[in-house]
Amino acid sequence: MIILNKDKPQNNEYILLDDLEKIASLHKQKVILTKSLWIKKKQFLRKSKINTGIQLNSDESLDEITDDIFCFSLIQLNFISFKDGRPFSVAKQLRKKFNFRNEIRASGHILPDQYIFLIRCGFDTVEIEDKNIDVWVKFYKMDEGLYYQ
């Protein structure tokens, strides 16, 4: 997988973890934690100097982490289905209501023709398969702005 920021591919600096056992071996590494792991270990993680991101699946709410939002260098919103548009609303809410200025990343089941709408809603980056970069960049460059909305 590769990260696409507008039309520029970049390496993923983050590692997705589902348990903290591995964290000791990741010296100065950027990590993405599941919401459940963050909730269980947030006292420890808030005190640590670990560069932490969180992943929220599209069926998970922000409610339990609203007080913690500014602890995260990245919020990754994982689309569990390309038909599920809730992450669009969550990204917009993070930007407008919570004034979140760090990176918001889309991952999971997303389609290239959704890319411009992701950016318009507040996403900075998308996690995609390496082989699809050209298609995603093509859709990005086809955008003519808000011409009828």
Structure, described:
Helix content is 28%, strand content 26%. By secondary structure, it is of the alpha/beta class. It has a single domain, classed as Aldolase class I (TIM Barrel). The chain starts with a strand and ends in a 7-residue tail after the last helix. The mean pLDDT is 88.
Feature tags:
alpha/beta; globular; TIM Barrel; 8 strands; 28% helix; 149 residues
State Rg. 16 Å
The helix-and-strand class reads alpha/beta
Number of strands: 8
Biggest sheet, open or closed, and with what strands and sense?
8 strands, mixed
CATH architecture annotation:
Alpha-Beta Barrel
CATH T-level topology: TIM Barrel
- What sort of overall outline do the alpha carbons produce when their principal axes are compared? globular
Low-confidence runs (pLDDT<50, min 5 residues)? none
Percent helix, as a range, is 25-40%
The number of domains: 1
CATH superfamily: Aldolase class I
**Strand order of the main beta sheet, please?**
2-1-8-7-6-5-4-3
- The CATH C-level class name: Alpha Beta
Helix count equals 4
Order of helices and strands: EEEEHEEHEHEH
Overall mean pLDDT: 88
Q: Span from first to last CA?
A: 33 Å
The amount of beta strand, in percent, is 25-35%
